[in-house]
């Protein structure tokens, strides 16, 4: 099983579709914990890839290809994750998830959405590159308990603050909890912009979302 985790990580880093899909299939069929595969395998590999990119060891087309491998592997892990769904927890709580305007990174946001679903949350995924206008509209229409804002670029992280300011201006700020995340986001930033919560990864996001709606301490 550990070998397959290593093959999976290497396949994501090297953008090798077949070995990656085969390794993740063996892991899931062999009963590996899907959360462990996602967080300690796939997310770790993408972080490592980002470091290699920074050092100039890989280039944009290779990262695009790795993201495709990630999506294919995720399509195998997600059903296993959802099969463990807790039917009672957090029922009737809706979370709107999106990646903010200008930002096309959605792999992490999708992971958070999937793990929230397994914990019984309803998730309305608005996708990526989502403007404050659209978020305001969706909050008015769907009345979610929580909105989750993902940002992966230092240039788009400030848009999380733009959204919060807009919610204040529209009189919506006290109607919805705001949770922020994404690799460059910090707890200090979350506090500075007046977000209700920050989480570093998807399992933590679930715990924090439960606290926000009062089903966990
Ligand atoms: C894959 C990737 C891409 C893919 C994205 C594919 C996709 N569909 O998402 C592609 C190739 C398209 C891409 C494009 C670009 N990218 Co890019 N990308 C990455 C990379 C390597 C991995 C990101 C990822 O998916 N990680 C895996 C997931 C699982 O982790 P995650 O997103 O962090 O999510 C976890 C947590 O953060 C948290 N979380 C995430 N969202 C949320 C939301 C909430 C509410 C909560 C609570 C928690 C939470 O939970 C998740 C699960 O644990 C990162 C490197 C890195 N260190 O992040 C660079 C990186 C983010 N990219 C970078 C750059 C520069 C770009 C481009 C500008 C490159 C270019 N010249 O075009 C473009 C920007 C396009 C755009 N407008 O958005 C830089 C950003 C640098 C900076 N200063 O901002 C990075 C850091 C790479 C680097 N080291 O330089 N990229």
List the helices and strands and how they pair.
Elements: H1 2-14, H2 17-29, H3 34-54, H4 60-83, E1 94-99, H5 107-118, E2 122-125, H6 132-142, E3 146-150, H7 158-169, E4 177-181, H8 187-192, E5 197-198, H9 202-212
Parallel strand pairs: 1-2, 1-3, 3-4, 4-5
Bound molecules: cobalamin.
Cobalamin binds next to helix 3, helix 4, helix 5, strand 3 and strand 4.
Folded structure, characterized:
The structure is a single chain. With 217 residues, the chain is of the alpha/beta class. The protein folds into two domains: 82 residues, Methionine synthase domain (Methyltransferase, Methionine Synthase (B12-binding Domains), Chain A, domain 1); 119 residues, Cobalamin-binding domain (Rossmann fold), CATH 3.40.50. 57% of the residues lie in helices and 10% in strands. It has a five-stranded parallel beta sheet, with helices on both faces. Helix 3 runs antiparallel to helix 4, helix 4 runs parallel beside helix 5 and helix 6 packs across helix 7. The two termini are 34 Å apart. 41% of the residues are buried. The model has no long low-confidence stretch (mean pLDDT 95). Cobalamin (B12) binds next to helix 3, helix 4, helix 5, strand 3 and strand 4.
List low-confidence stretches.
Answer: none
Write out the distinct hetero groups bound to the structure.
cobalamin
According to CATH, the fold-level topology of the largest domain is Rossmann fold
The helical percent reads 55-70%
Oligomer: single chain
**The CATH homology group name of the largest domain:** Cobalamin-binding domain
Q: Shape from CA axes?
A: globular
Mean pLDDT value: 95
Element-by-element helix/strand order = HHHHEHEHEHEHEH
**Residue share in β-strands:** 5-15%
Number of strands: 5
Query: How many structural domains does the protein architecture include?
Result: 2
| Continuous helix count | 9
Please give the largest β-sheet.
Answer: 5 strands, parallel
Lateral arrangement of strands in the main beta sheet: 2-1-3-4-5
The CATH class designation of the largest domain is Alpha Beta
Q: Can you tell me the CATH architecture of the largest domain?
A: 3-Layer(aba) Sandwich
Spatial extent as radius of gyration: 17 Å
Class by helix and strand content?
alpha/beta
